[in-house]
Amino acid sequence: MVYWCFKNKSAPATITYPNQVLIYNYENQTWAYFDDTITTFGYFEQNTGLTWADYLIQWQEWTSPWNSGSNNQGSAR
């Protein structure tokens, strides 16, 4: 599927965001319009992961299990 978001030309001038989505389905070769105010598609992953240089402790002081995920970039914990 392919998605395009756009402002319909008949929309009032006070609307500043896209107010429609045009969708093309490759599988069944159909088109569709939806009334929606989507401004972007996709995922956002903030790049705030720690590097080894950020850790100021010695190996002997490490207490988290290696597979804990607590300090992994994008971790939900």
Account of the protein in words:
A hairpin with a 4-residue loop joins strand 2 and strand 3 (30-35). By secondary structure, the protein is mainly β. It has no helices and 3 strands. Helix content is 0%, strand content 22%. It is elongated. It has strands at 2-6, 20-25, 30-35. The protein has one domain (1-59). The mean pLDDT is 81.
Secondary-structure map:
Elements: E1 2-6, E2 20-25, E3 30-35
The strand line-up of the biggest sheet is: 1-2-3
The percentage of residues in β strands lies in 15-25%
Protein structure class = mainly beta
Mean pLDDT level: 81
Low-pLDDT segments: none
> Helical stretch count?
0
**What number of structural domains do the residues give?**
1
Summarize the structure.
With 77 residues, the chain is mainly beta. The protein has no helices and 3 strands.
Main attributes of the structure:
77 residues, three-stranded antiparallel sheet
